[in-house]
Amino acid sequence: MTERVGFYICHCGINIASKVRCGDVAAHVASLPGVAVSREYIFMCSDPGQELIERDVAEHGLTRIVVASCSPRMHENTFRAATARAGLNPYRAFHHVCVREHVSWVHPDEDEATRKAIALSVAGVHRVTGQKSLSPATFPVTPAALVVGGGIAGMQAALDIAAGGHRVHLVEKEPTLGGHMLQYDKTFPTLDCAACIGTPKMVSVGQHRSIHLMTHAEVESVSGFVGNYKVRVRKKA
Hints:
The chain is α/β, with parallel strands linked by helices. The chain has helices at 22-30, 47-60, 72-85, 100-104, 110-128, 152-163, 194-207; strands at residues 5-10, 35-41, 64-69, 94-98, 144-148, 167-172, 186-187, 192-193, 211-215, 217-225, 228-235. It has two domains: 5-128, Rossmann fold; 144-235, FAD/NAD(P)-binding domain, CATH 3.50.50.60. Helix 1 packs parallel to helix 5 (110-128), helix 2 (47-60) crosses helix 3 (72-85) and helix 6 (152-163) crosses helix 7.
């Protein structure tokens, strides 16, 4: 099947349009093979901007969408959702090109910024036509946390996580908890006794049913992914 690509470059108010000639970018992309629609719009992330994508998919039979705008960290999910509402697979059919952080905000020269925006947009069009369908998957996770370091910060983190109802594995390389804090007489800014603050936390950690304490131990390796990490801990003799 011949792909029909819709391309949209966002002005982002003046954030992009002040340095990138968006009309020139849209005109250049319009000349590429397979591009059925190429537009510029002041705010693509707005409801009218998203509706423009959905309407063009219905009216022009678009099969792929490329949006050149701000950082994908900010609005990639926004445009993926619009792509999905239009009936397309949001992972296969959509690609996000960053022309704000990567172009208009870092290039003071308008000609240079426009050339770079064109290059990135052309690359985005070529990329999107080769993307494959993906489907969200659900994996069981291990509802536990590993805290490395049994100083004052590590102990407090372990206690907070355990208070939230999660199992905690606390690894400390020294034979006892406390860290550097207990080496000092007083603490800033209240000049409280360091041991007076640290010792109760050490007792709380040691007695908490949801905290598995491993002292005189070090992390050797970490593998897996978020929710399913496998960590090898070496216990010193």
